[in-house]
Specification:
It is a single chain. This protein has 364 residues and is α/β, with parallel strands linked by helices. Helix content is 33%, strand content 25%. It contains nine helices and 17 strands. The strands form four sheets. Strands 6-5-11-12-13-10-14 form a seven-stranded mixed β-sheet. The relative contact order is 0.17.
Length: 364
């Protein structure tokens, strides 16, 4: 491969790939159809999960040479709401997640843009990427999951609340994060997405009942979607590399893909310079993603009573420790994943990228 690399897409995975390649001496151009960065995000809170592996997420970034010089809010407490009106306070000694802003200004995206510019990357905004761009980081290709969000300003005290009630959000959940006066409310589902407006209305009502009245100002409502397909590799047959959601990389349980997206950027950058690590790809991307398929299968079959029991259990133990146990790959989860993937496989033609190794049958 030549010393010039063109990257289609200026989101997290595209910019992280660009930074690492530019630091290795490549001449890198990033083509972003958006102006100002931030892509489809509107400045709301998003989650950098920290409960899928023992290594802290920020330390993982440092290991990739990406010093995390952006605003993070460590999450060690949350309020879970179940379908019977119960509330459950959960806590952990170490952060189970970091809340980060996604969007054009003061965000994780703007941090990566600054790193890219400092490394000598050329940003082409509002310019279509060349069809033969060597790296594809253009985000989701189809809606395997959908979220409806409201971003707002508020006087609500710092709050992390999640509603698990399958009668309101079947195959998903609702969330309300308000930190430092900035709020994000949303409902996410992977099936029965036509019911999102009604689910949003009911979940909002439930949060207001529990948290009390609070101001909502400068609100901005928007929707977004995500895709999920387990990649068999990151390099397609035509030689192009796929990273982030362009490769289908996403947590299938909760839809938290930021950390995985950044991980694929590091793997792809190493591959481009001739240091592809197939074992690391299998261990850090494919196997954890298969584990989330097994978890998703169980999640969609839990009723209200099981969710309430899970919330109670979470409130009685270290929450990050519980997440690590639930998401740690093992023989039983691998076996369940193989069965679920065989039953759920898409057989009518895949719409994902050419690196897709498995995807779920689309909902009719």
């Amino acid at each position: 491969m030549s010393g010039k690399i063109r990257i289609a897409g200026g989101g997290l995975s595209g910019l992280a790939t660009a930074v690492q390649l530019a630091r290795r001496g490549f001449e890198v151009e990033v083509f972003d159809r958006h102006h100002g960065g931030g892509g489809r995000f509107a400045g709301g809170w998003q989650v950098l999960e920290n409960g899928s592996r023992e290594l802290d997420a920020l330390e993982e970034l440092r290991g990739m040479g990406l010093e995390p010089d952006f605003a993070t809010v460590p999450a060690t407490r949350a309020l879970f709401l179940d379908g019977f009106g119960g509330t459950h306070e959960v806590a952990s000694a170490a952060p189970y997640a970091y809340f980060v802003r996604r969007g054009p200004d003061g965000s994780m995206d703007s941090w990566l843009r600054s790193l890219a510019l400092a490394a000598g990357v050329t940003l082409r905004e509002g310019v279509p990427a060349p069809a033969a761009a060597e790296v594809v980081a253009t985000g989701p290709r189809q809606a395997d999951g959908v979220a409806r969000e409201l971003v707002f300003a508020s006087d609500l005290a710092d709050t992390v609340a999640v509603l698990f009630d399958p009668t309101i959000t079947p195959t998903g959940y609702a969330y309300l994060f308000c930190l430092g006066g900035h709020g994000t409310f949303g409902v996410a589902q992977v099936r029965r997405v036509a019911g999102l407006p009604r689910a949003s209305e009911l979940a909002w009502r439930r949060f207001r009942e529990v948290l009390g009245e609070f101001a909502v100002r400068e609100e901005h409502e928007h929707g977004q979607f995500m895709n999920f397909s387990v990649p068999r590799r990151l390099r397609a047959a035509d030689g192009r590399w796929y990273v982030g959601e362009a490769a289908g990389v996403q947590d299938f349980l909760f839809g938290l893909g930021n950390r995985l997206a950044l991980r694929t950027a590091g793997l792809a950058a190493a591959g481009i310079v001739g240091r592809w690590d197939a074992r690391a790809f299998s261990a850090s991307v494919q196997r954890p993603m298969r584990t989330t398929v097994a978890a998703r299968f169980l999640y969609e079959r839990l009723g209200r009573r099981a969710f309430a029991a899970l919330c109670r259990r979470a409130s009685r133990t270290d929450f990050r420790g519980l997440l690590l146990r639930l998401q740690r790959p093992d023989v039983a989860k691998d076996a369940l994943a193989r069965l679920v993937m065989a039953a759920w496989r898409e057989r009518r033609g895949c719409r994902h990228a050419g690196v897709c190794g498995w995807c779920r049958e689309r909902e009719q």
